[in-house]
Amino acid sequence: MSNVTVCAAVLVDEQAPVTIHELARFCDQQIEWVVTLVDHGVLQSLKQLEQPELWVFTSPAVARARQVARLQREFDVNLDAAALIADLMQEIGQLRAALSNR
Amino acid sequence: MEFKDYYKILEVPREASQDDIRKAYRKLARKYHPDVSKEPNAEAQMRDINEANDVLRDAEKRAAYDGVAAQVSGANGAAPGPGWDQGFEFSGANGAEPSQAEFRDFMAGLFKQAAQQRRTQERGQGFDAGRGQAQNFRGEDHHADIEITLEDSFAGVTRELSLRSVQLDAKGQPQLVNRTLSVKIPAGVKAGQMIRLAGQGMPGEGSGAAGDLFLTVHFAAHPVYQIDGRDLTMKLPITPWEAALGGKVHAPTMAGAVEVNIASGSKQGGKLRLRGKGLPGDPPGDLYLVLDIVWPPADSEATRAAYEQLAKAAAFNPRRHLGVSA
Prior knowledge:
A: Multidrug-efflux Transporter Regulator, Chain: A, Domain 2, globular, B: about 325 residues, Helix Hairpins, 3 domains, 4-stranded mixed beta sheet
């Protein structure tokens, strides 16, 4: 059985961010986990609003949250360690990109 | 679904303790975790490793798995002998290999159980999770990666994606379904950008909506440009006299060649910025040209003479700051 579906792609950016509920679902976590990440400065909501229910996130935040969730789950480390690993991975990525520019 | 030997995947013996499994998992995670691994195929390997770990680290799931594994491959992990499957009733085999059908049911059972637990948690106390009642669940979201070229991002592109997913048929049996999605990717998409295809994830249960499919964009390496967000960087080769005297040269951009002014006295590695000549967007990215001075080879009488003349005229010692006189 095969069929072709034509569909429009919507960029997950400032115009169409994901909600905190969606982000929690992507990471297989509860929204409290996302709130903790934001409170610890690991993630940033697009708009700094009081109510977490209204927080929204763009692609880099989603990628980072999923990475932190993976690291926590798969290496069994706490949030601070996972965030540190994510920071270091990002820095290594940037350094590698800078090296390839030379 | 192919039978997977979780013990083999984790490289542990069947009698491995929970500690052994934990250690083996750590070791393999360090090697294959997509965030830290340079191994090819790391993501697929890690998926298997996680699946094996999820089952073997949970005593109940491990016992259930061992039961099925014994049926599939014969006791003690030996190859299945003739007649190994006698007296065992398989559900929904439909011509598929009994072992595979059985394993598929086992896996479907495990994951369904986990998914339902999660949903119940998500919906909290007020949720009616009574057994046997018709329930409406939103389908699961799917996440996948897509690789595009810089040219695709510059102009926008329509990509056909072949997806293989498991869907329940009318009898509630899982079936592999091939589908093709024609996806229009807008111009100016950046690396790491997520794209949402609404309703293209797993179908919902009951009258629940289908999940979404999310694609994360990666760029194939480009022979000329390095990509940083919407900004592009390229090396622009120039001659020593263009660097020293200045002049107009042509530089290629994604939108065609442009004329750029090289200032007199330009240095190796100097950067020029062409505003708005990177990837399109709001705001569009910039194109950086990194000057790369290329010397012509002294391979003819005339060029040798020119170099000799330059040596006399310039009286230049680039090692003076190192404290040497020649």
